[in-house]
Amino acid sequence: MPSYGPPPRNDERLKVAPPKNLKDLPRYLKETVGGMFSRLFYIVRLVWEASRLILIGMSLLALAEGVMPIIGTFITAHLLSRVVASFAGEVDLITPLIFQFGFIFANSILTSLSGMINRMAGEILTNHVRVKIMKKAKTLDLASFDMPDFYERLENANREAGMRPLNILNASFTLVSRLISAVGYVVVLGALLTKLGTFAYLFFILFVLLSGTSAAVSFYYRRKGFRYMRWRSKDRRQLNYYSDLMVNKDMVKEIRLFDLSDLFIGRYKSIFTRYFAGVKSLIYRESFWNITLTLCTAAMNGVLFYMIATHVKLIGDYSVYTGALNAIASALGSVLAGMATIYEGSLFIDNMIYFLEEKQTLLPNVAPALLPEHHIGHTIELKDVSFRYPGTKRDVLKHVDLTLNAGSTTVLVGLNGAGKTTLIKLITRLYDPTGGVILLDGKDIRNYDVAALYKLYGIIFQDFGKYAESVRDNIWFGQIDKEPTDGAIVDAARRSGADVFIDKLEQGYDTPLMRYFEPEGLEPSIGQWQKLSIARAFYSDSDILILDEPTASLDPMAEQEIYDQFDRLRKDKTTVFVSHRLSSATTADNIVVLEGGEIAETGTHAELMEKQGKYFTLFSTQAKRYRNGEE
Ligand code: ADP
């Protein structure tokens, strides 16, 4: 039985119990810092997969960017000393100047290179992640798409696909290069600290304390920010919903005529105000702490500068030491900011990792999976089948026992919401039943290879696909492993009656559909779309035909024609129709009346009419309406 439990939310997965005692500290560090590094490693692997060259380039640049400032400080110091010495007499200034300009030149080359690599990395990485997400989406269970939680993750993953991994990687590389600089400068300053005496050590300790506090503040607020975003994720999705709604092509008619624009804009604004109030307060509070800490650091640096100035004799040394101090302060600042960015990013990136690691549950139950036989009649049996949509509390199908005999036609009848479409989703293994079993040719449907199983079905759903591709492709998609020869495509169109409108098109079967991409694209009417989708079913030579209200948008004449065609063409294929118009049921081998997820009646038209039960009532009501000209 599938276990569609709600998946754990990200922040629950990320929740790390605080350490209980000192012995527990390693566990805590492993879970927090280790978790961060494992996500970072994931991103590095992602970039490696996307382009090794980019990763190598970024690493080399980080290294260079770390060493360059130290070299720069020495070159400047050297130049300064030479300039001072030149006041006293002839000194060669050309060589230090060449070094200085060489350094400036090399630095700007590095900046350009880093800009170039970053832009390329952005494009390559986004593309790589998008393709990964698309491939993942291909394998996911339909059930996952029913869960709001899953949708949230999917949206997040899609959003994060863009810049977040790159930002994290950049921050990590900056962090590495700043660490390299900082270590270099600490070595330089080490020499000075001994000259300054005890005070210097005191300052050093203060400096570390201040940095630690500012790191703690950063981490605290980043985590709070992340939590807030998660907490308000419904708000953010609603904001997206309203802004998409206003530019949605299908909605624009109704929104205009019912004058809903201002209402939706108003709702958008009020949600934003609520959402922003929290963000604002977080920003203010974090900024307050940051400013306070910066003031303390500045005061401390002032004193230290004064001490350096009074302790060193050479202007060059002064420049090296104050430069080093400044650089360490700024390097530490960037390291802390970088770590906070990585930390925050790793929380967000978890959405993507989690989505990419989502497991498929609709897999064959046995290994090796069975392969269904093709081009034979198939029998489908439902034994005590019950079903409940994931995350809901109500069975929409209850103890259904039903046999669809090989080569027979079954019509499913019932009011809206009776469970007809759901039954079809189970027969085709888009979902697994939550109770009972479905057999295909005597074997559990779950034992078959899923892709091979899907190939058995030619199916048109009520909400069939409308593809912004050519007319030809829209028919060919019925079976893409079959060569789309003109003969086969035109034949399928003729059978569904779609040929009538296609023949009138200037570009015929090559006409692009919809106006998403092509200004001259055709926007077919619903009826025309429906005929195209039926052509798709005719095009596929699948063994089992399933039509879920395929003719709802067609007039009764066209509908009858299509049913007649199906009757002639289906040969010995097992066929299931869901239809509101009961005239189509009269010739079926078996009619199944579903009511509230249960089978109320089964039998042929004649049997059920004689029984004068539910079907009789439904049929008579509809026939009366037909006679009165209401339909
Ligand atoms: P029918 O095809 O007979 O009109 P359906 O099979 O579409 O009925 O729906 C049966 C019941 O299942 C309805 O109550 C519907 O609200 C519910 N339902 C359908 N799809 C979903 C879903 N994805 N998640 C939750 N409930 C659903």
Order of strands across the main sheet? 6-7-8-3-9-10
Q: How many beta-strand elements?
A: 10
Count of alpha/pi helices:
21
Give unreliable regions as ranges. 1-12
Write the CATH homologous superfamily of the largest domain.
ABC transporter type 1, transmembrane domain
- Assess the beta-strand content as a share of residues: 5-15%
Kindly summarize this structure in a few lines.
The chain has 631 residues and is an alpha/beta fold. Helix content is 63%, strand content 9%.
Walk me through what this model shows.
This protein is of the alpha/beta class and 631 residues long. The protein has 21 helices and ten strands. The chain has helices at 10-14, 25-50, 52-88, 94-139, 142-145, 148-160, 164-196, 198-231, 233-246, 252-257, 261-311, 315-356, 420-427, 450-454, 471-476, 486-496, 499-503, 526-539, 556-569, 605-611, 614-627; strands spanning 380-388, 395-404, 409-413, 435-440, 443-444, 457-460, 544-548, 574-578, 590-595, 598-603. The strands form two sheets. The protein has a six-stranded mixed β-sheet with strand order 6-7-8-3-9-10, with helices on both faces. A four-stranded antiparallel β-sheet has the order 2-1-4-5, covered by helices on one side. The relative contact order is 0.08.
